[in-house]
Amino acid sequence: MGIWVLEDRHLDMPPGTSKLGEEQGPSALGNASDLKKDGDVILVPQPSNSPNDPLNWSPMRKNAIMLILAFSSGVTTSLGPMISPGLVLISQQFNVDPDTTATFMVGSILLFTGVVTFFTASGANIWGKRPFFVISTMMLLASNIWGTFATSFASLAAMRIFQGIASAPLETLVTSTVSDLFFVHQRGFRLSLWGVMLGTGVLLGQIISGFIIESMGIPGTFAVSALIFCIILPFIYFVVVETTYSGPRDDTSSKEVRPGSSESFSEDLKGDVAAKETVETYKSQLRLYRGRLSSESFWKGVVKPFPLILFPAVIFSTLVYASFFCWLLMIGVLSVNVFSAAPYNLTPAQIGLTNIPLAIGALIFSPLSGWMADAIPVWMAKRNNGIFEPEFRLVLMIIAIPLSTAGFIGFGIAASEGLSLTWCLVWITMHSIAVPFASQAAISYVIDCHTKDANQAFVTINFVKALLSFVASTIGNGLLTKFGPRTLFIGIACLNLGISLLTIPSYIYGKRLRSWVARSEWAQKI
Asked: 153-159: long-range contacts at Cβ-Cβ below 8 A with a sequence spacing of 24 or more?
């Protein structure tokens, strides 16, 4: 029982543990025969009978919202590293040292995004996510227009700070939108879609911007970004409606239908249920302001992510996600100096092209990691008497850990020895492949453990990632110059490996730790 996840002596079903099958009769949600299912999988969470419950929307509508948000998030994330191929040019043009250039052109946007998420996540819990998505897109459009016409380093630096502020909603509210729209057994694939967009945004952004910078200069890359956000804005406004549902989900039905099917409400919406709640009109759904959706305090929500770092699942996910994603960004920054110097002597466009194998790896392995993030836990749950444990998500780290460790060590040695460009790209691609598996494990794990606090939990995760990335971008070039690529990247490999090995105690003791949090008085006060 548990597949090496130790059982808890106090709670049989701590938060996160759920019933996905019927092998053991009644589940924690009630009698299995009374619960709604998708095939033989009991739906977690159980949807209400309301047509306005996002869990009951059609698959096409839910997937359209997810696809638009994932693409928009990917483009937004690309804004940070897309300037990397031009860092040397900016440093020379404005006579600014490389570390300062990297700090204000890359680090600042990450840092301010991380800081502002405390406010946007709290606001989204109270007023909904839709207004933040729309306003974020409008501000990002304005920031790229600003960048197109900026003529000084100070103006570019200020614009990047503004861009970081504007990026916060589209970078951090997507994960909680996944939990709004999809059931536990469906989330892994959707998170992988988001992961594909993030990974390819970081990498393809640098590939495309390398050519743009070489042919049109630095302003050109912001002009093209502005055009992209002109296209994104109407899709965000007309398709991405509010996904926060504040109605009750206490009702259960023995009618076994797939949510979103034409039969879902044919019987359930008759009589009293139909009289109580009608389908919200499309015009009403386009409202940006719907009043307060929660009675929670805004300022309490702002500070809530800080104590969440004390939750073991949040600590683990924060460290793993921040580490893997930070080093993916830093490879883009540090490889500029490596590849622009002898023996490689690459131009900005050629440096951008070095991201092609990384992007291909992300495109192939992100969907695979998403499929595995759903399929493996369901497979393990069936062999665990139908009991799903969030720790089953962590199995993906078995793939991420060796790939990432070998990738860092190999790249450090290859770059220091001046080996062929092919060898350098093989090694850094290995880390790129590892990232979707690690991020899937970290994000899906924390969402499963703390679904209600997903917004604030990801704020904590993103802030630590931003802080780590800011520090790394500030001192990275200096460390590369001082220690060389071999020592620096072997050091990164050891640090990342040490963090990754936290997977072992997290998997074994995770259920007991979730129970401890659920029973702790201090946790209930957060």
From this structure: 153/90, 153/94, 153/96, 153/104, 156/90, 156/104, 156/105, 156/218, 157/104, 157/105, 157/108
